[in-house]
Design brief:
Layout lengths: L1 E5 L3 H12 L5 E5 L5 E3 L2 E3 L1 H10 L17 H8 L10 H13 L5 H11 L5 E4 L7 E5 L2 E4 H7 L6 E6 L8 H6 L3 E4 L4 H9 L4 H6 L2 E5 L2 E2 L2 E2 L4 H7 L6 H8 L5 E5 L6 H4 L5 E5 L6 H13 L2
Parallel strand pairs: 1-2, 1-9, 2-5, 9-10, 10-13, 13-14
Antiparallel strand pairs: 3-4, 6-7, 6-8, 11-12
Helix pairs in contact: 1-2, 1-13, 4-5
The structure holds guanosine-5'-diphosphate.
Length: 300
Amino acid sequence: MITVLSGGTGTPKLLQGIKELVDNDELNIIVNTLENEYFSGVYVSADIDTVLYTMADMINEEFWYGVRDDTFITHERLNEIGTPELLRIGDIDRATKIQKTLLLENHPLDEVVKIQARNMGIKANIMPMSNENSDIKIVTDIGELEFHDFLIKHQSEPEVLDVVFSEVAPAPGIIEVIKNSKAVIIGPSNPITSILPILSLDGVREALKETHVVAVSPIIGNDSVSGPASKFMKALGIPVSSVGVASLYKDFLNNFVIDDKDSDLKEEIENFIDEVTVTNTIMKNLDDKKKLSELILNNI
Ligand code: GDP
């Protein structure tokens, strides 16, 4: 059994490779829930839905959000009748979100995700990191912003001074799943708003010390491959580099995978991480994703 810790862009790319190479019945995916919130009357768990759609081969790979070839009839009509939406929710995607909202009336989030995964024909065990809602604030030079206001309304442009989130309890079974895994893979996701929330759950860091952990760096050179990760790292005083990412995982990490372009950092990181693997980590196509997954899986 292996377990992957995931956010909503970088790790799902890696999952497209991993899912082709392992028995999906033996695959757990623990997903960030930090940004879950209600929009337009439906429960939006962006990273969970991205992982669901990735594993069901439905993901929109242009945005790593929503369903490929979706239509936006409801979104456009809402705009026409005077209720514009902050999130551009597609019609098929909205059905997933409506179902989640209805199921949440009678089930905790982890059970809802299990039902939806089963209905989509997914064999892997997708687990939200928590059943509780988090509270996250991005403190910026124009004031304190809600996460989606920062990301969408302000296009991640304000200067970030701090990222603050509340602690929540781990969803049932997460600690056991980590402890019982042959290895845990931390995908190349935003270390601050996707991976740290999972690591800050009670018992997760301790459980990770009991298994073999491999992480892929989301930072190449001095910037993230996409998204605001570098802004968030800078705000928290963490060097924006693979060295900075490794420092966040150093108490449990066994192997850190960094990009060819950062090969000069290998020695420095090996001062505090057992093993550093240097390879191409940019995943443009399925071949890249499978090669990176194969390298990780062969080393665990
Ligand atoms: P979010 O929920 O949209 O923030 O998505 P994630 O947290 O999963 O991922 C965002 C991170 O993925 C960013 O920090 C990117 O640098 C990283 N990322 C995206 N694509 C790639 C890729 O092909 N290779 C690597 N190494 N990192 C990537």
